[in-house]
Every structure is written in structure tokens, then in C-alpha cells.
Write a structure and sequence with these properties.
By secondary structure, this protein is α/β, with parallel strands linked by helices. Helices cover 52% and strands 11% of the residues. The radius of gyration is 26 Å and the shape is globular.
């Protein structure tokens, strides 16, 4: 798998071989000093993995992660020291290169199979966690819960980086080193961090030289652009940014090197310089737009799906006036750069200028799927209550990945585990037996047919769910501890509150607010299944538990009447009081159970997030038939939305249901809306009024896709003609034709209003 789209990919793995040799040499020389080991490994990667400035670029910074290296999560190469074995094996099987080259490849393969961080984490898990969390291969095994190996969602203090520049950051690190009473590890951390800024300057110099060489060959406007770029790269090495171009270039180069590509609140750290340059004639609007467009193109170049967040708007900005002006620029860049990334996001509130909202609506209506909309008037009070923080702190909430909340450059809340509530339903029905996997897993409880009341069955369902929630919380704390002992993640640490002051990396006490997040899928299907069990078996006695279990085991093949009853049972999402109450109650259970884990495992908070990133389809492949009438292997409901079979009932009833779940005690909820182009052409005012009503009545978030139903059908039949068709999958956007066929089918069958 090629993890990144590159203009000129490398033709061999010589860089990876050199990295491996450097690591082995460094390990011997600096054993016991993890900070120096990481710093030297970074030097072995950069600038070797960098790619040239392309002809259309007004910014510098492209790279290609290979199958061996060092990263912070799988979407940026890999987690810690990583290897993608299949890519190395493929290179060996190709038989290319010299005998020495192939020997080096084989040696590298053998070495990293044992030394990579993923393996290290999984092998050192406590035995009781190995029983609950069997594997991290969620796409290959039918697991109700799966550990996720990554350190995702780190939002760095780019505002500080822009205000101080490289010299200011190095001065702060040096000053911290001069304090008395520091322990050896603190000195090692600070010294290695200084080396990282020296490496950052080397990268800037690398591209400065390249821009200069290109400028010598260029003419006219292109020559002017390259000379400006060369100057920005030169100045970034020597002082803090004094122009919009310099600020964007420095932030982007830092992102490449971390590597973290959740950018954050760009209007905060870019807005002032952008407005200064425009107001003083340093930049034209056209030039500023081109810089921003190229910035967005470079983010998309990383092809990281669920990350790459660029956020504007909302409460808590240093200068709302310049922030709003920048927001308009960023929205226009999003509208005109028709790529999957960045995940452009608008935080809005009652005082957001009408011009910003109109620009956002125009962008959405043109089919961009962006901006993603977050309602600060609902979310900020919700964050205050959930996390027990001040209004000021809550205004600095930020969303990571597919929609989880944390606090910018203050907290880490990596989603390090997933929970499949629909799979847990299957286990509860069968007493712990998994008919898909052919094994017994988790708690052993009475089967549905052995339960004397609905309350008894529901209690057993909760027992299964609680078992996995507890395991996932323990894994979260374990992952932080074990990876922190191995990896300081220097570049991320130094732009996090507390790390420089304490002289400690993120996961060894530097992070002020170390939290956790549990990705929760299939909750709607689980709630609808519980409702069906109660209604059909215990309340109305229209079927026995044995009959339901027989129908489920048969995947309804010989039980069409039973399935019809299950499908017709009350469902969440159509403003049905009883069904909606089931979902609310079940979600409250998940929220409270997860929240209770924080103190137990030593985290500041531990909360579920209700999102989807195609896993309502991929995880559902491993789930048999469920009591809501869903067939084996079919997709579960997307995010917090109703099942597809009921989503067609209409927008207003769905909104009424969506507004019932609580906005506290969880780390975020994703709401997907999809409108047809035809509807907007006919009734644009009504659609806008419906969405305004949704937000006015307490809607916290919306991810909106505007698309023609026929476009989806045609794209499945003639993909070559629809390469630019972008859809919202759940917690991320994607080119429709690049999705797997069953994911395409699920999106097509999803209701459009």
C-alpha cells in the first residue's frame, strides 16, 4: 500500500535500508537515551523522504513515507518504529537490484518484524487484556472490541510557533535546560528537542536551495513566486514569521516533520498576519488565496482520510475580527480546491457574521461536503459540563479525527479502541457464543431464550458491553505508558502545554490532560434490537425467544415473516417515543460506564464518541443477523443517524429524534445529512430553515453532503467518469469511486432528502 500520493515516488527502498542501519548503530551508541535515539532516527529520515517543489507550488513541503520508518500513527507512515511487511516482501519477490540490496532487504525485514512498535505493544499487553482484545486486525477478525495502535489527534500550539519562530523556541528550550535540579532524562529531552529545531532549519535550507535553483530557471510571475518562497524559507530559519507566507510555510514544514497533520484553528495563528499583509499591500487577495489553496493541496497530498483538520471560527479566538476575515479566505480555498482534504471545519455561534455563514452554505451546496459545522452555543456548555472545565477552557475545545473532542495543545485523547455495540448484541443473544467467529468470547451469560424477562436480558447485554469498555480503558492507559517509555515524540511534545516547563515528553508526564476516547459503532442497531426484543418477545409475545434466535441463526432465509416483524418493530429516528427512549437510555449507559473508567485507570477523562469512518460497513461484515431485522454482514446505521430502512421517513422526524440524546458525558457525536441537488434547486429556503431549526433547538453538529442520487448510481457503473465525486462517508470524506463496493452500496442506499 502506498500511503501517500507523490509526484515522483522512489523506485527502491535504499532510504529504508539506510534508516535501519542508522537505527541499529544509534541503538548501540545511545542505548538508554530514547530522546537521542529518536532525534538521530529523524535525521536519518529527513530530508531523505522529502520530495521536490512542484511546478504549481508556492509553498515547499512534500514527502513520501516508505514501508519502514518512524511516525506517530499509521496514517503518517506508521506508529512509532514501523514496518509494512507486505511492501518489503513484494520488493523482495520482484527480484530487483543487486544481491547485496536483496540481502539488506531481507535483513531489514527480519529485524523490524521483531523490533516494530505495534508488535512490542501487543506482545507486552497484560494477559487479561489479550483475552478481551484479541488482535488489532479489526478488518480480519470478528471482534466486539479492538485496540487501535496510534497516537492520534495531537493539536500542537502553532500559535506559539508562529509568535516565537524557531529562534524563540530554541531560546525557550535552552533556558529550560539552564534550570537547576534537572534530572538526566529532563536534560536529554530538552537537548534532543533543540536538535529537532536544528533539523527543521536544515529542512528549510534544503528547500531554500531548491527554490533558488528553480528561480534561476524560471521567468515572469513564476520566478517572482519562487523568489518569495526562497525568502520565506530563508527568514524562517532566522526569525519569527512576519508575513502570511512565512507563517504558513513554517507551520506546514513543522507538520511534515512531526508528522501530525491536524492543523487546528488556522484563523487564530494565521489571521493577524494575513490581514496585515492585505491591509499593507504586501499581498493581494489573489496571492493570498493561491497560498491557501496550495496549503490545502499539500494537506490533501498526505492522503490521511480522517485527519487533516483545518478549523476556523468559534468562541475563544484572540482576534475574532481578523479571524472572520481569514475564515472567508479559507472557505473560498476550500470551495475551489476540490480535494478530499483538508477536513475543513467551521465552528459557529449566534454572533458569527452572516457573510461567513453564507459562504459556508454556498460551499456545501456546491457539493464539497465542507465545511463541517459545529455549533459552539451547544457544544461549549456541553464540554464545560462533561469535562468539568471553565468556560474559557471549553472555548478551546477542538475536534480530532472523525469528530472526537479534546483541548488544543493541552490534552491528548487518542481514540485507542473501538467497540461494536451491534456485535455485542449478537454475543448477548447467544450467551457469549459468536456464531460468525465460531468461538466463545468474553463473559458467559444465559442466552436470550434462557432469560425470564427483558430486564434480565438487558442486564446481560450491559454486562458484555461493560467488560469490553473496561478492557479498552485499561488498554488506553497501558498504551500511553508503554509507548511513552519508548517514544518521546519530540516534535509533538515541545508544542504541548507543560512539556518544556516540566522537561518531560507527552506520555511521561508532560501532557497536562491525558485522556482517552472510545470509538463506538452500531449503537443505533443495538438500541433498535433491544426495542424489538422487548416489544416482540416480552410485551406483545408475538414470537418466542427461541423463534427469534432460530430466525437470526438462519439469517432469515426461512423466516421472512419473523424478519418482517423485526423490521416493523419501533425504530429510532422517526420521532417514535419508545424507540428513541431506548437509544437515549443505551447511550447514557455507554456514556456513564465509559466515564467511570477514568479514575479507575488513571486518566483525566475517558469518554465514548459516536462516529463512523466506514466502519459501520466494515465492522458489520463480522456481525450476524440482529433483532432489528438487519441481515448478516449488512451495514449498521451510520454514526448517530437512524438505520437506512427508516431514514427515508423524512427529515423533520429524524431531526426530532436526533435532538433527544444528551450532549454531555460523551466526546462527540457525528450527524450526517444528505440532500439531493434537486431538492435544493426546488426548496433551498426550506432546507436552510430546517437546518437552522435543528441548530436552534440544540443540534450540535452536522456533516452535510449535497449530491444527486443518479450521480452515485452512475459512478458505480462508470467510475472512470466520476473521479471527482466526493461524498461524506461518516467521519471523513472520500472520492466515491475509491471506496470499497459495499461501502459504496451503503452510501447509495442511505436516504437523501
Amino acid at each position: 500500500m502506498n500511503h501517500f500520493k507523490v509526484a515522483s515516488p522512489r523506485t527502491n527502498l535504499e532510504v529504508e535500508i539506510a534508516f535501519t542501519k542508522a537505527y541499529r548503530r544509534i541503538l548501540k551508541q545511545w542505548r538508554g537515551n530514547k530522546y537521542k535515539i529518536e532525534a538521530e532516527c529523524m535525521k536519518a529520515m529527513y530530508p531523505a523522504i522529502l520530495h521536490p517543489i512542484e511546478e504549481q507550488d508556492v509553498l515547499a513541503g512534500r514527502h513520501e513515507f516508505g514501508p519502514v520508518g518512524f511516525g506517530i500513527q499509521h496514517q503518517t507512515g506508521g506508529f512509532g518504529f514501523y514496518i509494512h511487511e507486505d511492501e518489503v516482501v513484494k520488493e523482495l519477490e520482484n527480484g530487483v537490484g543487486s544481491l547485496k540490496y536483496r540481502e539488506d532487504l531481507n535483513d531489514m525485514l527480519v529485524f523490524w518484524k521483531k523490533e516494530n512498535t505495534d508488535r512490542y505493544v501487543m506482545e507486552h499487553m497484560p494477559e487479561h487484556l489479550k483475552k478481551a482484545l484479541i488482535s488489532d486486525q479489526w478488518d480480519k477478525l470478528p471482534m466486539p472490541a479492538c485496540p487501535i495502535l496510534r497516537m492520534a489527534g495531537c493539536y500542537l500550539d502553532f500559535d506559539k510557533l508562529v509568535l516565537k519562530g524557531i529562534p524563540g523556541m530554541m531560546e525557550e528550550l535552552s533556558a529550560s535546560m539552564e534550570r537547576s535540579g534537572l534530572e538526566e532524562e529532563q536534560i536529554q529531552f530538552l537537548a534532543a528537542s533543540i536538535e529537532m529545531f536544528d533539523l527543521l532549519k536544515d529542512m528549510l535550507q534544503y528547500y531554500e536551495d531548491q527554490a533558488g535553483e528553480m528561480a534561476e530557471r524560471a521567468e515572469g510571475k513564476r520566478k517572482e513566486e519562487l523568489l518569495k518562497l526562497k525568502e520565506a524559507l530563508f527568514q524562517n530559519q532566522r526569525r519569527k514569521p512576519e508575513s502570511y507566507l512565512e507563517a504558513v510555510q513554517l507551520v506546514w514544514m513543522y507538520c511534515l516533520m512531526t508528522p501530525i497533520i491536524d492543523i487546528g484553528r488556522c484563523d487564530v495563528f494565521f489571521g493577524d498576519l494575513y490581514c496585515h499583509d492585505i491591509d499593507n499591500g504586501i499581498l493581494t487577495e489573489e496571492e493570498a488565496l493561491k497560498i491557501t489553496q496550495n496549503f490545502f493541496q499539500l494537506v490533501d497530498h498526505l492522503d490521511c482520510e480522517t485527519d487533516g483538520r483545518v478549523i476556523v471560527g468559534g468562541y475563544g479566538r484572540r482576534n475574532p475580527e481578523t479571524g472572520d476575515r481569514y475564515s472567508l479566505l479559507a472557505i473560498e480555498a476550500c470551495r475551489t480546491v476540490k480535494e478530499v482534504l483538508p477536513q475543513f471545519t467551521l465552528r459557529f455561534h449566534k454572533d458569527t457574521p452572516e457573510s461567513v455563514m453564507k459562504a459556508a452554505i454556498r460551499c456545501i451546496e456546491e457539493g464539497r461536503t465542507y465545511p463541517l459545522l459545529y455549533n459552539d452555543d451547544v457544544i461549549v456548555p456541553g464540554v464545560m459540563s462533561t469535562y468539568g472545565v471553565s468556560r474559557e477552557m471549553a472555548e478551546h475545545y477542538i475536534m480530532l479525527g472523525c469528530g472526537e473532542y479534546e483541548f488544543e495543545h493541552y490534552s491528548v485523547a487518542t481514540p485507542s479502541g473501538s467497540l461494536n455495540a451491534a456485535k455485542i448484541m449478537e454475543l448477548a443473544v447467544n450467551g457469549g457464543w459468536d456464531p460468525v467467529g465460531g468461538w466463545t468470547i468474553g463473559p458467559r451469560t444465559p442466552k436470550l431464550s434462557e432469560c425470564g424477562s427483558f430486564e434480565e436480558f438487558y442486564r446481560y447485554y450491559q454486562e458484555h458491553a461493560k467488560y469490553y469498555i473496561e478492557a479498552q480503558a485499561e488498554f488506553e492507559a497501558y498504551e500511553y505508558e508503554i509507548t511513552g517509555a519508548r517514544h518521546p515524540f519530540l516534535m509533538a511534545s515541545v508544542l504541548y502545554d507543560g512539556c518544556i516547563k516540566k522537561g518531560k515528553a507527552l506520555f511521561e508526564g508532560g501532557c497536562e490532560y491525558l485522556a482517552g476516547t472510545l470509538e463506538l459503532y452500531g449503537a443505533v442497531d443495538a438500541a433498535d434490537s433491544l426495542c424489538a426484543v422487548k416489544k416482540l418477545i416480552f410485551d406483545e409475545k408475538r414470537m418466542t425467544a427461541e423463534e427469534m434466535m432460530e430466525a437470526l441463526a438462519d439469517n432469515f432465509s426461512d423466516y421472512p415473516a419473523a424478519r418482517k416483524m423485526m423490521l416493523e418493530a419501533p425504530k429510532y429516528g422517526v420521532d417514535h417515543e419508545e424507540a428513541d427512549a431506548f437509544f437515549v437510555e443505551l447511550q447514557d449507559f455507554f456514556n456513564e460506564t465509559a466515564k467511570a473508567q477514568a479514575d479507575r485507570v488513571g486518566l483525566k477523562s475517558y469518554l465514548p464518541v459516536y462516529i463512523n469512518n466506514a466502519q459501520n460497513t466494515t465492522l458489520a461484515r463480522w456481525v450476524g443477523a440482529t433483532p432489528n431485522g438487519r441481515k448478516s454482514g449488512c451495514a449498521t446505521a451510520n454514526a448517530n443517524n437512524p438505520e437506512s430502512v427508516v431514514e427515508t421517513k423524512g427529515l423533520t422526524p429524524m431531526i426530532n429524534s436526533l435532538l433527544k440524546p444528551s450532549h454531555i458525558n460523551h466526546a462527540g457525536m457525528v450527524q450526517n445529512f444528505r440532500f439531493t441537488k434537486e431538492l435544493l434547486e426546488r426548496s433551498e429556503d426550506k432546507v436552510i430553515a430546517a437546518m437552522k431549526d435543528y441548530f436552534d433547538r440544540g443540534g450540535c453538529q452536522a456533516m452535510i453532503t449535497v449530491i444527486g442520487k443518479d450521480d452515485l448510481k452512475n459512478a458505480m457503473e462508470r467510475p472512470e467518469e466520476y473521479g471527482d465525486l466526493i461524498v461524506r462517508v461518516g467521519g471523513f470524506s472520500a472520492r466515491f469511486v475509491m471506496l470499497e463496493k459495499d461501502v459504496q452500496k451503503e452510501i447509495y442506499e442511505r436516504a437523501s432528502y
